[in-house]
Each structure stands twice: as structure tokens, then as C-alpha cells.
Amino acid sequence: MGAKLSPLLSQATNVLAVRGQGCRLYDEAGRGYLDFTSGIGVTSTGHCHPHVVAAAQAQTADLIHGQFTTVMHPRLLELTERLGDVLPDQLDSVFYANAGTEAVEAAVRLARQATRRTNIIVFQGSFHGRTTASLAMTTSKTSYRAGLQPLMSGVFVAPFPYSYRYGWKAEETTAFCLKELDYLLATQSAPEETAAIVIEPVLGEGGYVPAPPGFLEGIAERCRMHGIVFVIDEVQTGFGRTGEFWAFEHGAARPDVIVMAKGIASGFPLSAIAASEELMSRGWPGSQGGTYGGNAVAAAAAIATLDVIRDEALVGNAHDMGTLLLTALRRLQASHPAIGDVRGLGLMAATEFVTDSGEPDGLTAKGVTAAAERNGLLLLTCGPHGNVVRWIPPLIVTEEEIDEGLVAFEAALAESTG
What we know:
The protein is of the alpha/beta class. The chain is built from 13 helices and 15 strands. The strands form 3 sheets. The protein has a 7-stranded mixed beta sheet, sandwiched between helices.
């Protein structure tokens, strides 16, 4: 009798994917599905991009695992040099891990050691991972933390400028949330004991809510004033997803640390943090490491991913296709009252479903994604109430594929909302 997968795993779709190509996944019967989940933002260059496949295959034949605290391998050195082309000039030192949650914890560890301070400030609705420290920083929904508390201490939560939830304009929400951040620094975590402020520039699991540029700039100003490390979690937003290479580039704020993963290697496990060499050197010797971090095959795939993003102008495509997608979704919103809000940056878009009285409507959102699957379109939900349908097409998506997805979505809307 064979083993089975854990019953604690949940599946968002009923698809058994046996093959992927471009923007599509195929099941055992050969049916194709337009995949607008991208493995939760991972397969940014599409499934099995030929250049990425070739790079991984070639590397596998030469060296699969060169453990990077024992020996160094050329692909990691090359990847680090290539990341220098897309990182802010001052962020010239990189540490590699496997998953986003590990990279978040590495950033927290660095900030605490470098500042000799203890506390971390995060924002309501954030998702930073499922391991102990990152889970303590995650407030996107209670199910991630249920049964596990108390978690790591020293984490304080400030309001995120979720304008639709508050019912205010972006400027008003930004001013309120910055004022509340100042209040938190005055009442809960004094600046001199705050090591880092960590934020997603667009809430991911929390509902695909972009932070107004002025909010990020206000955080950066407070971090400079108080010697706090400003950490931007670009795990889901980085590598062109929002129509800029990094989501923070939509404004003037610049972080002290960038956390990256997901789209970095087109599906191979890899994550990293980037900081200045000066900041990185203030961490304690031996505090960074890991068995699989910076794996040779994953590094080769990441180099190939950077090639594809550059050579196929995918950052610009994310901007253009995202504009097209958001414009079309707003047209659908005008004729479907169940869609309370449409928002996003680039190819990171959201449709938030509400009841007639304006309350979160997770049931309808779930019904729409199920109907979309029947129509050959894969989408995911997010948000504390599961009422936000998120759109994460690969960055290679074409106008024709966007149109195809919208047709399937409109049919799903008609089926689910009448």
C-alpha cells in the first residue's frame, strides 16, 4: 500500500498537470488551461521556456550541487554579477537561499544583528512566509497562524493603506497610515529598539493591494531618520511582475534590503536578499548559510531567466499587458456590481468581490474561479476573506491570451453571478 499526500494540503483546482508550455498547462487528457496563476507568480517566463530549459539541462550535465559554503561554482558568481545589473547600485552584496520565507528570515536576522535592536514592524495583511519568524510577521489571514501561537516576539503590526477597505482616497489613506505608524513608534516599539520595517510593495496573499508610492517614501524617510533598516519584500512583485523590474521603482523610495524569490528562476527553487556590503558585513560571521542555497541548476535557470526578461522585453510587456488587463476588468466591473474593486500594478491584478451591501463575498469569488476553470482558465483567490480573485499571468502573455482569458472570466461571471 503506497503512501498518500498529507490531508492538510488543499488544492485550488482539480487539474492534474502533466505538461506546461508558455502560458498553458495540459492535463492527462491533453486539455489545455490558460494558466493565469503562474505557480503563484513563479513561472514568469512561462512554462518550460526553451532558453531556461536548455540552461538547466546543460548545467545538470556538469554540476548539480556545489554546496556554496563548501565550494563555489561559476553559475552563482555569474548570477551575482548579473543581478548587479538590475539592483540599485548601493545594494551590491547578495545572499542566497531556497524559498522566500528563508530570505525574509535572513533579512530579519541581518537587521537585528546589524542594528543590535530587537523589534520588527510589519503591516496588516502582509504575507512573509510560513516558517517561525516570517509567520510571526504574516497577518494576511488567521489560518496560517492558527494553532501555532505564540510565535516569535518583537513583531508589531501597523495599518496598510488599503484604500478600498477604508473607503477613502489613496492620499487620505496614506496620511492616516503614516500617522498610525508614527503612533506605533511612540507607543509600542520605540525607534531605538526597532531593527527593521518590512513591507510588501503590493500585498500578495493579503489581497493584491498596491502601496501608494507616497507611503513607501514615508516609511523610507522614517527609517533614515531613526536608523531603522528598510526591507522591501519583493518575493512576489520582483523580476518585472508589476511593470517595473522592482515594484518599489514605481516611486522614489529605495530600500536597504530587497528580498527576492518566485520569478527569479522560472520555477527552480531559489531566493536571495540584497543589501549594501557595508550593511551585510555588520551581520555576525557564520549567520548565513544553508545546504541547498544557490544551487547550481537553479542559478543557471536564474541567469537564463534574466536573459529572457531582457531579450524579450518582458518588463515592458508586463506594463502594457497589465494596462490592457486592468482596463478590461474595469469595464467588466461597470456591468457586474459583484466586483467591488479592480486594482493592481502590471500583471499583478485583482478583482475584489462583494455582496450587495458591500461586505466581502468569498463564496462568489470561489464560484467564479471554479467556473473559470471549467472554461479553461486557472485563477486563484486571496485576501483575508478569500473574496479577491488575483490575476498573475506569465510575463510573456500576449494580447490574444489576455482576451481569451477575459472571455472565459466573463462567462464565469455570468455563470456565478447571473
